[in-house]
């Protein structure tokens, strides 16, 4: 009886940890860049949309920065503050919609390298680390073989809206094409087995297929990094 009781207690503790696991999301969207030449149309809405998805779940901590508020220093500070609070059983998610360039994201006032982002993620206790980027040429984050090896050495899931040589399409709707299918997938469209959780593989399959079909085979989302395909991205 004593062994059975101890086993039951351990199972209860595990369940409690799973129930109270939190998601820390930093959602960034920049449509209004300095001047007019580089402005986008709906990237700020993209960030707000993904924030609402996670806010609708239990135990989500969400920070949103858009347009002029999304400076390099603000993004770094927000990531550091938000992700430092995460425990080992939690998940941290960085979502970015805006301009991209090889090896970096384009903040409102300059470039933020992926290397700097990975430095912050490395100091985070969370075992689930996710970076989602909706930007043109998002796949070009791997500018060198050495950088690719550095990224893959960390346990981070990278979900990028397009291949190295592709643009990421906006749309006539309130969100860009990639984010439209990302939202649909996270809200349950990707939940193939109806277990109320979306895994990395389920999300990729749903978004990848949707974007390819909607873009006429012109845009191909990619997912790579060191992570478990069965990792839970969001749970309802």
Please, could you describe this protein's structure?
The radius of gyration is 18 Å and the shape is globular. The chain has 7 helices and 11 strands. Mean pLDDT is 87; it is low at 14-18. It has one domain: Rossmann fold. Helix 2 links the parallel strand 1 (23-29) and strand 2. With 236 residues, the chain is of the alpha/beta class. Helices cover 38% and strands 22% of the residues.
Could you give a short description of this structure?
The protein has seven helices and eleven strands. The chain is of the alpha/beta class and 236 residues long.
Secondary structure: elements and pairs:
Layout: H1 2-19, E1 23-29, H2 43-55, E2 60-66, H3 72-84, E3 91-97, E4 100-101, E5 104-107, E6 110-113, H4 114-122, E7 128-134, H5 145-152, E8 157-160, H6 177-189, E9 197-199, H7 200-214, E10 222-225, E11 232-235
Parallel strand pairs: 1-2, 1-3, 3-7, 7-8
Antiparallel strand pairs: 4-5, 5-6, 8-10, 9-11
Helix pairs in contact: 2-6, 6-7
